[in-house]
């Protein structure tokens, strides 16, 4: 549902306790007219100018109160703002939702390349997360391990010895015990998500448009499929498009007819730009070259930083054990790459190893162990092969 009106008037008609989640990205109190043009030169703008701070906060207070009324008792609200008024808005949220219902201050951070002003380069915006009550809906999202995490160690189960020191657990034969499948690390309240670049296909030309990647994360943590998401200041409709892509219901309101027109178009043909940086992670960039990363990103895997024989482990375990991946280096023979992988994966108690090679005609005299899968092009063929082997 889409409404072209003042969100206050529209929300007054909504039933109490009816919305699962609200995300609002209102004017920030920048005291500027926000304007931008699309690829065809059509200009869009909205006013973020106020008589005074009190004027702005009164505008926000009455609307935030209405949002609380229509939010379900299990619901959450995410208020997006920046340093222009974030300190006042947090106090306002405390006042309306109660200090006890503050959940998180999410920092959305991104890379900025220029700074003409004297001072620190602003590289974040803030999203305050409050809930209506204590029994709120929350889904944990897991991210990848950081570059400094020793993944080799995490894959092995640990116990405390008599002195209370953490040591590797060993079975009756003295062998290291493999740990259970790990989901990753629960994400923190600092989110590094790139700004939409000016040429991104997702960009509509509407000023202050937010990336779908950011909205998807908010929607995933606070709602389930079929839940209803409201954006009372929807602008170009980013929240609604994200909700649609994630099979949630959505309601959008904006006072600007241009915003509603863009939102309608986007909903008819939703498009999301994928960030390569996000996919592979900034830390990974530093240790693997681009070709290696592009290969490893074909797999659902955790990249290993400090192991000469293994480049990554599949997230999924087979036969309760990890699966190692190794890419044959340019200056390395197939035989050498194979032996590095075989010995490293043995040490890590892997059920299978995947060796990615560029060699098309393999020397048939080389003995390839039955738990090693050789792929000579980047494909997901490994899944088919693993399924064949584990079905036996
Ligand atoms: C920061 S923009 C939202 C941008 C949006 N998140 C996106 O990704 O495109 C704020 C929007 O609030 C709208 N707006 C301002 N006052 C409003 C009001 N009283 N009711 C509804 N919308 C309003 C503006 O027209 C503008 O589109």
Keyphrases for this structure?
alpha/beta, binds S-adenosylmethionine, 8-stranded mixed sheet, 12 helices, Rossmann fold, 392 residues, 3 domains, 5-stranded mixed sheet
Give a quick account of the main beta sheet: strands, pairing sense, barrel closure: 8 strands, mixed
Give the CA-CA distance, first to last residue.
Answer: 51 Å
Average pLDDT across residues? Answer: 89
The bound ligands are: S-adenosylmethionine
Q: Strand-residue fraction?
A: 15-25%
CATH topology assignment of the largest domain: Rossmann fold
Structural class category: alpha/beta
How many domains make up the coordinates?
3
The CATH class of the largest domain is: Alpha Beta
Output the radius of gyration: 26 Å
The helix count comes to: 12
Low-confidence stretches: none
Q: Biggest sheet: strands side by side, in what order?
A: 1-14-13-2-5-7-6-12
CATH superfamily of the largest domain: Vaccinia Virus protein VP39
The second-level CATH architecture of the largest domain is: 3-Layer(aba) Sandwich
Could you characterize the architecture of this molecule?
The protein is an alpha/beta fold and 392 residues long. It has 3 domains: 2-140 and 187-278, Vaccinia Virus protein VP39 (Rossmann fold), CATH 3.40.50.150; 142-185, no CATH class; 286-391. The chain is built from 12 helices and 19 strands. The protein has an 8-stranded mixed β-sheet with strand order 1-14-13-2-5-7-6-12, sandwiched between helices. Helix 5 crosses helix 6. The chain is elongated, with a radius of gyration of 26 Å. The structure holds S-adenosylmethionine. S-adenosylmethionine binds next to strand 14.
């Amino acid at each position: 549902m889409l409404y072209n009106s003042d969100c206050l008037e529209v929300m007054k008609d909504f039933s109490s306790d009816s919305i699962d989640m609200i995300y609002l990205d209102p004017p920030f109190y920048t005291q500027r007219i926000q304007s931008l043009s699309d690829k065809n030169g059509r200009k869009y703008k909205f006013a973020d100018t106020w008589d005074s701070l009190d004027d702005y906060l009164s505008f926000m207070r009455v609307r935030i109160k209405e949002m609380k009324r229509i939010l379900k008792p299990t619901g959450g609200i995410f208020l997006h703002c920046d340093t222009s008024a974030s300190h006042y808005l947090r106090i306002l949220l405390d006042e309306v939702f109660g200090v006890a219902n503050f959940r998180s201050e999410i920092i959305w951070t991104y890379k900025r390349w220029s700074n003409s002003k004297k001072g620190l380069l602003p590289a974040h915006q803030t999203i305050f997360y409050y809930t209506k009550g204590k029994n709120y809906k929350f889904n944990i999202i897991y991210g990848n391990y950081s570059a400094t995490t020793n993944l080799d160690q995490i894959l092995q189960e640990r116990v405390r010895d008599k002195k209370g020191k953490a040591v590797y657990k060993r079975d009756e034969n003295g062998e290291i015990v493999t740990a259970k499948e790990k989901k990753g690390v629960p994400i923190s309240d600092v989110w590094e998500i790139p700004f939409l670049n000016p040429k991104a296909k997702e960009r509509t030309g509407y000023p202050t448009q937010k990336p779908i990647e950011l909205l998807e994360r908010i929607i995933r943590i606070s709602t389930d499929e079929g839940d209803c998401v409201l954006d009372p200041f929807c602008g170009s409709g980013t929240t609604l498009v994200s909700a649609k892509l994630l099979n949630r219901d959505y309601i959008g309101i904006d006072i600007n007819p241009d915003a509603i027109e863009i939102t309608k178009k986007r909903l008819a043909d939703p498009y999301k730009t994928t960030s390569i940086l996000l996919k592979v992670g900034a830390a990974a960039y530093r240790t693997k070259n681009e070709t290696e990363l592009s290969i490893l990103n074909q797999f659902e895997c955790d990249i290993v930083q400090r192991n000469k024989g293994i480049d990554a482990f599949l997230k999924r375990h087979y036969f309760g054990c990890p699966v190692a991946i190794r890419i044959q280096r340019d200056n390395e023979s197939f035989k050498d790459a194979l032996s590095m992988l075989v010995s490293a994966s043995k040490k890590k108690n892997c059920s299978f190893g995947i060796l990615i090679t560029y060699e098309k005609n393999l020397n048939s005299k080389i003995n390839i162990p039955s738990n090693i899968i050789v792929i000579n092009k980047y494909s997901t063929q490994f899944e088919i092969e693993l399924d064949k082997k584990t079905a036996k």
